[in-house]
Amino acid sequence: xxxxxxxxxxxxxxxxxxxxxxxxxxxxxxxxxxxxxxxxxxxxxxxxxxxxxxxxxxxxxxxxxxxxxxxxxxxxxxxxxxxxxxxxxxxxxxxxxxxxxxxxxxxxxxxxxxxxxxxxxxxxxxxxxxxxxxxxxxxxxxxxxxxxxxxxxxxxxxxxxxxxxxxxxxxxxxxxxxxxxxxxxxxxxxxxxxxxxxxxxxxxxxxxxxxxxxxxxxxxxxxxxxxxxxxxxxxxxxxxxxxxxxxxxxxxxxxxxxxxxxxxxxxxxxxxxxxxxxxxxxxxxxxxxxxxxxxxxxxxxxxxxxxxxxxxxxxxxxxxxxxxxxxxxxxxxxxxxxxxxxxxxxxxxxxxxxxxxxxxxxxxxxxxxxxxxxxxxxxxxxxxxxxxxxxxxxxxxxxxxxxxxxxxxxxxxxxxxxx
Length: 419
What we know:
Blueprint: E1 2-6, H1 14-17, H2 20-26, E2 32-36, H3 42-54, H4 60-77, H5 86-104, H6 110-118, H7 120-135, E3 140-142, H8 162-175, E4 180-184, E5 187-189, E6 195-197, H9 202-213, E7 218-223, E8 228-229, E9 241-242, E10 244-246, H10 247-255, H11 263-271, E11 275-280, E12 289-292, E13 302-316, H12 324-336, E14 341-346, E15 351-356, H13 359-369, E16 373-387, H14 391-394, E17 403-408, E18 412-418
Parallel strand pairs: 1-2, 1-7, 2-4, 3-4, 7-11, 10-12
Antiparallel strand pairs: 5-6, 8-9, 11-12, 13-15, 13-16, 14-15, 16-18, 17-18
Helix pairs in contact: 3-4, 3-6, 4-5, 4-7, 5-7, 9-11, 10-11, 12-13
């Protein structure tokens, strides 16, 4: 068994989707499992539609544009398909279903509403890709993620029921033993049948779970870069590709925001000794990066940049010194609001923390803190982490007026900075 995870960049348009049959033939196995992300920026566009609809504003133009974008890709991939054909009409039906969900779903719970709408992104893309692969002569079976992964009802950050999901995946693999199985990443279903999203980058999580539960020989992530680099090639010059990296190091990088795989999934893959490869769909012939167990490696300085952050400073209204009860209270409110805290620093009377910004949830967090804390915050900041740093790597941060908060340990240095 090989599991292929196709991210948004690798399925963003007809040109990239046409590469998929070649990727599968070059990396074939006795059985293949494909985990598909939403196309390109579809998740962001569905989030915008969700926000407009939840606020009671008109979303029709944004929705129509997204539908036409997907229908155009479908027509480009299947040029002989008439618009009256059943597969074309089914794609239209999916968009009609999405529109009905938007109109009919109660707008009282934003997180629940978000999951029911945004989960359509992967459903659109997986259907288009499955129909294209059928046209290319491949024997594929499209299965709904709800028959593969079971979650609780923690909307927008579902917690997977490992035992139930393992059994469900085994049943799917047994049922379609001689076919290429396609499913959606990022989403699962809870007990009543409602969709639950698994958090941003959740498609990686889905693929990792499937690979772990099937004891796959290899899990391949197809990206627009040919491996893992010590920094984002789109942001930094003179980057270095890391050919091999240990699971232990990847857990650390994931914790600090490297969006390759959830750290909890890395543990599952490590336990089953599954090799994880990160390769380029643009240059599939190139060697990627291999993540394996028990590697003793020396790494260059590794830089991780998390954009779209908010820096919040909370000071107890009662002027008490910061203690564990304050930290517990702040973390508790953040957890209730589904806000991911990436860095925390305490002083005598203040606590500062950096979190991933989400307009709805962060405003809810700020409101929740306001009862017991005096709150100040900076939006539109980013968090930069440097692992395996040298003095030279940190020299540029000293005295930098854009640094709002810094924290340096033996293992890494972190800086919250304004643009």
